[in-house]
Backbone:
């Protein structure tokens, strides 16, 4: 189905010189496989380029603006360019309405669609770089991605749940959380673990998952919510 990319350009205030390049950024491999006669390639090469451009622009911004150690900047950058963040940004920009997917891929939602949207965002960045150069693409990344940094820093979204709960517990109560396996069930190939997170000997929350690590993360997230620290 033909998409009207001019409406997208108007919405995000970007005007491509090469309209085919813009269309290519939204073309998933599955669409090409389903329409082999089309004279257009999928977006994976643009995604490869866009990933590098995005990381460079974000890294340069963090390096120039913040004197923090390399380890902290690396964690902040990861929070800005991970799949979850990029898919959220792509959704807000309306990218989902312009994807060219196979009929099968169109039915997918959840994590599969998030992955496609994040990759498409990177492909769009690559296409914009090819079409208009680094200054224009840096401006776009600044507005769409780097604008999220203050919220990430304020809410400590760069921390995983376990790290965040540990930091909050040590800061507010002077206690380092501990985790204990409460229950383990199921056959070896399909085990389920229930883990509890404790402050001293007090059980704060439980988490369930296919591994102890996943269960610990879920327990920490529930503990953050229960304590009002999330």
Residues:
């Amino acid at each position: 189905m033909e998409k009207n990319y001019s409406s997208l350009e108007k919405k995000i205030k970007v005007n491509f010189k090469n309209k085919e390049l813009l269309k290519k950024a939204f073309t998933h491999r599955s669409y090409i496989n389903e329409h082999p006669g089309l004279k257009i390639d999928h977006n994976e090469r643009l995604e490869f380029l866009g990933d590098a451009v995005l990381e460079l622009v974000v890294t340069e911004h963090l390096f120039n603006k913040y004197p923090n150690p390399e380890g902290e900047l690396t964690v902040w950058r990861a929070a800005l360019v991970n799949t979850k963040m990029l898919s959220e940004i792509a959704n807000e920009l309306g990218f989902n309405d312009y994807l060219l997917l196979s009929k099968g891929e169109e039915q997918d939602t959840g994590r599969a669609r998030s992955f496609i949207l994040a990759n498409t965002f990177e492909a769009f960045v690559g296409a914009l770089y090819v079409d208009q150069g680094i200054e224009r693409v840096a401006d776009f990344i600044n507005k769409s991605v780097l604008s999220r940094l203050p919220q990430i820093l304020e809410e400590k979204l760069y921390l995983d749940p376990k790290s965040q709960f540990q930091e909050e517990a040590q800061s507010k109560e002077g206690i380092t959380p501990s985790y204990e396996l409460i229950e383990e069930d199921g056959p070896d190939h399909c085990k389920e673990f229930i883990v509890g997170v404790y402050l001293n000997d007090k059980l704060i929350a439980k988490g369930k998952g296919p591994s102890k690590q996943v269960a610990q993360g879920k327990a920490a997230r529930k503990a953050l919510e229960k304590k009002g620290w999330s």
Summary: The chain has a mean pLDDT of 92. The beta strands are 178-185, 192-199, 202-209. Residues 44-65 form the longest helix (22 residues). The chain has two domains: 5-154, 161-227.
